[in-house]
Each structure stands twice: as structure tokens, then as C-alpha cells.
Amino acid sequence: xxxxxxxxxxxxxxxxxxxxxxxxxxxxxxxxxxxxxxxxxxxxxxxxxxxxxxxxxxxxxxxxxxxxxxxxxxxxxxxxxxxxxxxxxxxxxxxxxxxxxxxxxxxxxxxxxxxxxxxxxxxxxxxxxxxxxxxxxxxxxxxxxxxxxxxxxxxxxxxxxxxxxxxxxxxxxxxxxxxxxxxxxxxxxxxxxxxxxxxxxxxxxxxxxxxxxxxxxxxxxxxxxxx
Length: 227
Prior knowledge:
Number of strands: 9
Oligomer: single chain
Distance between the termini: 26 Å
Helix content: 25-40%
Strand order of the largest sheet: 1-7-4
Order of helices and strands: EEEEHHHHEEEHEHE
Number of helices: 6
Shape: globular
Structural class: alpha+beta
Strand content: 5-15%
């Protein structure tokens, strides 16, 4: 699993894409901090809506400010969020933003039993939250007509498919996907008018072994809705 590849500012003050690097999160305390359901919800809100204060997050997520402040500090402690240092025009309010980065998790073969439990919990909450948000936004989307509506109502592409790969090919496929995300990442200053944050998710897993069918399906198949 990888999260949020991103671009950074250059030392000269011009925004530019940094050389792509990834970080493996193998520390159990870090993984436990990330697996906490409320923190995942807060990270998702910061990713979707941008920087926020603890009070903003509390109102949006139905929490109290004491809880959001505590969870923000814990997320900052492990490098998942940071305080926004630029002037916000809101006095002494503390604004927080998600820290982008290509974060990887150890493969299951290198996870001990305790880490596997934490990773299973993290993935369960993450996938459930993603599906809930997808269904919520799709239900709220109002197709554009002559009387109005949102042109982004059709912006829900998805793809389901199957391909025959070796393990090395699957690893290469995943790295190409990450490279594609980074190709489209750009600093805020280079983002054209009308652009919106688009959430992307990648999930792949080997199909279960099965006895050969009397009428085998093609080895390569895809179903997609490019909208």
C-alpha cells in the first residue's frame, strides 16, 4: 500500500517535482498511530478539503476539539500532518495540513503477527472509509443540464479487470502506477483554474486458485467506465 506521492518546493523558492523516493513504515508504534480510526478520518478530511484547524475538524467529524487536538499532535509526531506556517489571515489559529509522501508498508512476509493485526485493522478502516466516501459523493452528484448541475458529476471513473502477471511484473506494474500519479502531481501554484482534488485508489490481489473450467475465460480482461 502506498499513500499520497507528492511534489515539494525547491530550495530556490520555485516549486518543482522532487526526485521520487518512498518511505517504508515498519515501526509498530507508527503503524498503530496511523491505524486509529479517528486519525484516518482526520487525514482523509485534510486530504480532501485541505488545511483545517482542530475546531474545523471537530465540527466536520462530530468530535470535540480536545480529541482532534490530541490526534493532530499524534499525527504530527509521526510525520503525517504538519502545522501550516504560512500566514493564514486568521490570527493565532493553528492550521494543520496533511504531509504528502509515498509511504509503503512492509510486505506481509516481513510482518510479525502483531504487525499483521495492526495492518489488517488499518486496511479495513481505510477501505471502508473510501467506499463510504465514494458512495456518498456519487449519490450527491447532480448531473449537468441546461438548468444547471455540476460538470464533475460524471467524474467517477472506475475499472475492474484481470491480467496474468508474474510477481516481478506485478511489482513493476505497481511502480508504473505510482510513476503515473507523480507525473500528474504539481504544486498548487501550477494548478490551472477549475482543477479539483481527485482521490485515487489502487487495489490488486491474486485470484484464488481454481480447477480449470471447461470453457476458460480469456487471460486478460477489463471492465471500465471512463465517464
